[in-house]
Amino acid sequence: MTNLIKHIIMILKQDKLKIKLSSFLAYLGLVTVLLTVSCVNTKKKTYENTADIPVNREMVAELTAPPHVPTPVGKRLAKKLIVNMEILEKEGEMTDGVKYVYWTFGGSVPGSFIRTRVGDEVEFTLSNHPDNKLPHNIDLHAVTGPGGGATSSFVAPGHEKTFSFKTLNPGLYVYHCATAPVGMHIANGMYGLILVEPEGGLPPVDKEYYIMQGDFYTKGENGEPGLQAFDMNKAVDEDADYVVFNGSVNALTGDNAITAKVGETVRLFVGNGGPNLTSSFHVIGEIFDNVFVEGGDMINENVQTTSIPAGGAAIVEFRVDVPGTFILVDHAIFRAFNKGALGMLKVEGEDNKTIYSGVVQEGIYNPEGGGVQTMPDDGKAKQTVATTEKTLAEKMESGKQIYMQTCFACHQAEGQGIPNAFPPLAKSDYLNANVDRAIEIVLKGKTGEITVNGEKYNSVMTRQSISNDEIADVLTYVYNSWDNNKTNVTKAMVDRVKSGH
Amino acid sequence: MKAVLRLTICILLFWVHPADCQSKMVKIKGGTYIPLYGRDSLKVTIVDFQMDVYPVTNKEFLEFVKANPKWQRSKVKKLFADKNYLKDWKSDTELGDQQSLKAPITNISWFAAKDYCECQGKRLATIDEWEYVAMSNETIPDARTLKSYNEFILGWYEKPKTFNNEIGSTFKNYWNVYDLHGLVWEWTLDFNSVLVSGESRKDVDNDTNLFCGSAAVGATDLMNYAAFMRYAIRGSLKAKYAMKNLGFRCVRDINE
């Protein structure tokens, strides 16, 4: 561009004021053409080899603690990027009442987020706080070189080491400590993410967050209060007490939840520090529009759950269309509800009833009756003692109630059953033929083919968890309704069947 | 000449104030053992020697620098001590407010530690000697396979700021030596002879002494984790480094 302007000035100087307006316009036209052409020519050079991308100027990198990420690189040119990271061994809270000594990059678990673009020359200084006990180093998966920087960054407490590298491949990368015992350093929280954006940056989105899963191994079981030491044996056995996002159970819940507004696009940079477990990352109530698979270039669309290996990462993007709280989980679901791998995304804004209606209608759904269902016959139904035998009227009243709660859903209001699925109780030859058999079916359930009023049924009735008294009542009700044989079933009969005569 | 003169002064001091200058020592009976990095073919034999019962204290080192001004903070050669050297002291001859006289001296370089010991006719322990004494617990000389022994060491790795605890605050081991674990790291004479490279995983294929130790990390043996961290810290050091968690004690050969 500057050349062009010089060119114009030069032309103008040469011709001075001698030129007429028309010829000046002609020149202007020519220049415009030149300008257009040269615009194409000066369009950013693309480099076949990213190692050839030149850097200009120096810049101190912005580092952020999770769940925040630094400003996107946008269209900036490659620079010499100064990264200063401090290692701190410090006590933190795993969950309410449970303390843990974390080893951290930058004071947080996961460590500070580093944001670079391809071609940047990163000058990395790793400082080990004097109060720390152990030497540490850093292996950045974004580094091309032996040990990913580990060899050059091995640093004793109270000292610092500087090394530099050029970011050659765009993507989202894990970094971690690689000092012996490596597993212990990682298990104590020494990992984080470094993002290498492509030239021109990632497409802009409304919200970006930084989430990293890790598994922790403590002397005490999950929830045991006090300062918990690291347990090497459990770590070797991969028997995690805590599996959490961002270093602790409550890092992304309640007031710490991440937020967005309806209509916004959310981008999550999700890493997995491990040391052992692979994450099945899922957001309940959302579908990822885009997943940068394994943090690389490949984009998968419309993904429910994405797998993030230990020492790996993924970028997930989705537009939030309806308000509410969306739960982030490791869908290896016991980790979410029993070990802490649970976070929250709170979305505010207007409802969209087309996309999600909320509750439209409430009703009772009793496919197998209201009693607690168990599989046939564990022989331990609860017993209630009826002191006196009830009258038929009392039994009919009680029986009807029980029927409506327990039997109605399948056998229907008038005992008519459902053809081909549930046999009728009304005017039922099967029922009337054998009262003990009927009692036994209610007590123990029934599986397999039976013939009722000439129709074959092959279905399952689960054992009903109602008392012998209630069985007597409900069967009396059934036998005294719908043209059945009016048997009065007593509790004694039920007791007898139950005890096997 | 100067050196000779200083040595003479040292020796003089040594004779004049034996109580001040010389801490209590105990005899360690030699033996043969397999260190962390060893195999059967790499057994190490230790001959009898004497070891300080406690790490050198702030008080003892204070007296040392008063007698040897070249080891005072403002006068020390940069080659022999980095900027952390006696960093928390108020002045050349005053401890910091937070520092206890009876706490172990830390933030000293290998050169300073070595000179201190030599000044008393002693020397720093070799790694093999140090590890030999340190593998005992209260009752047995080699407790490395005991869970409780290893848990104590690993537990210390996670306790912050133990450097300001007083000497003798941990356990007395089989040899009647205190504080080998649980207080501070300690300099050894040949701290850098077993190299843990910065890239700890690579050591597995390195043809270094740690070949086996590193390979054993893959095993479930807790012992290697505890010890490996000591080797790791030694590997990260340079002789001029001074560290808040690193002190020393001396040993002496038994000449008969």
Provide structural commentary:
Chain B: Residues 43-252 form the Sulfatase-modifying factor enzyme-like domain. Chain B: One of its GO terms (molecular function) is formylglycine-generating oxidase activity. Chain B: InterPro entries: CTDL_fold (IPR016187), Sulfatase_Mod_Factor_Kinase (IPR051043), SUMF_dom (IPR005532), SUMF_sf (IPR042095). The complex is a heterodimer of chains A (501) and B (256). Chain A has 501 residues and is α+β, with helices and mostly antiparallel strands. Chain A folds into two domains: 58-348, Immunoglobulin-like (Sandwich), CATH 2.60.40.420; 373-498, Cytochrome Bc1 Complex, Chain D, domain 2. Chain A contains eleven helices and 25 strands. Chain A has helices at residues 2-15, 21-42, 150-153, 182-187, 232-237, 334-338, 392-411, 429-433, 435-444, 468-479, 491-498; strands at 58-60, 80-95, 98-105, 114-117, 121-128, 139-140, 159-166, 171-176, 191-197, 207-216, 226-228, 242-245, 258-261, 265-274, 279-284, 288-292, 299-303, 305-308, 312-319, 324-330, 342-348, 373-374, 446-452, 455-461, 463-464. In chain A, strands 1, 2, 3, 5, 7 and 11 form a six-stranded mixed β-sheet that branches. Chain A has a six-stranded mixed β-sheet with strand order 12-10-14-19-16-17. A five-stranded mixed β-sheet of chain A has the order 13-21-20-15-18. Chain B has a single domain, classed as paralog of FGE (formylglycine-generating enzyme) (Alpha-Beta Complex), CATH 3.90.1580. Chain B is 30% helix and 9% strand. Chain B has eight helices and eight strands. In chain B, strands 1-4-8-5 form a four-stranded antiparallel β-sheet. Chain B is globular. At the A-B interface, strand 2, helix 3 and helix 5 of A face helix 6 and helix 8 of B.
